[in-house]
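Write out this protein's structure.
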Amino acid sequence: MKIEQIYTGCLAQGAYYIESNGEVAIIDPLRETQPYIDKLNSTNSKLKYIFETHFHADFVSGHVTLAEKTNAPIIFGPNATTSFKAHIATDGEVFKLGEITITCLHTPGHTMESSCYLLKDKDGKDYALFSGDTLFLGDVGRPDLAQKAATMTQEDLAGILFDSLRNKIMPLADEVIVYPAHGAGSACGKNLSKETIGSIGDQKKNNYALRANMTRDEFITEVTDGLLPPPAYFPMNVKLNKEGYSDVENIIKEAKAFDAKTFELVANETDALILDVRHQDDFSNGHIPKSIFIGIDGQFAPWVGSLILDSKQPILLITPQGRENETITRLARVGYDNTIGYLNGGFETWKKEGLEFDTLNSITAKELEAKTTSTSAIFDVRKPGEYTAEHILDVPSTPLDFLNEHLTEFPKDKNFYVHCAGGYRSVIAASILKSRGYHNVIDIKGGFAAIKNTEIKTTSFVCPSTLK
């Protein structure tokens, strides 16, 4: 028996490749399926099952394409309804894989079809739980993504999740390995661990939601407390996972390599979004006017999904040379399939043609310290939790996730400054603001990490329970 976790940091997502006696099961595959095909071919193995733990909201899974290419059945848990052929398992249904078995455990609460898959070894002993978004390390799945209007609330779902955890998961032996669908950085929970593999015993000790003496009401209150609104692209991803989608390879083939002048012409004719995915320093030093920066080497896909509100808008790419197909693929992972082309040869070809380009004004934290004593024109685009932990005195929280909701707060008649933790997100924010006419935005290089090394005053929120 072989279990391989295939972890994708950008999505904080774990897919699983399980093999026994030449038969393979894949759980929650990514949308690009060729790596799985290559792995199967390398050992002359047969894909017997494609298991989905639920309809994912934060990424487009590869189940449809993988089934088309291998003829392996797609397995969902009870209550799932799809537009494509799938086997809807019953609670407790057993699937044989070589010398081992995989049992479907219906665990609704995160969504109503959410299911875990319990792997038993060749001796019939419980060995590993593939827990999807039902149980994370340090947290459980948020119960607000599958609400049915007027019939079910997030509190209702949280109560159902409480029952699922206590009736199906907590009775398992402490030594059973837990393989979750996500780790820290995912928006599918609020307190996920950086670890990606754990055990039932560890979670009983350390996961707040699995406290032995926890009441149902306490669970509902704690699980629903502090939930931020889900990213706007989540419903679109659920729809694709339910109804199907195009093969990523076809999207790549349809994207065209444009020379600089054709790129400019296409951008003007199509009203396409120009997305620049180079490093933030490269973008700051020179970029095509009105282009948006979201760097490929950060949490690229989730930020695309959160900030580009129209997934159908045509996209033109500026990428580091050689990373065009990678960028198209990573956009498709979150349902952004309308990449029509990219600048052949990268941004340098734009400059060589003598075409107009823009730069982003920036300042170091030390320069900011010497320049101003007022913080009225500084904006913090980090997440609320980061802001609460520590922030510049009197500076408001304007999280990047919800930048569109704060546009009226940014002045157009004077310079203002934006910062994040280290510089990646603030350049994203600045690029969006510049594209909307805020040319007086100035990025603070190095972000809050650099600010803390100055005399600029900071403060933090103190929990009342810690006060004496």
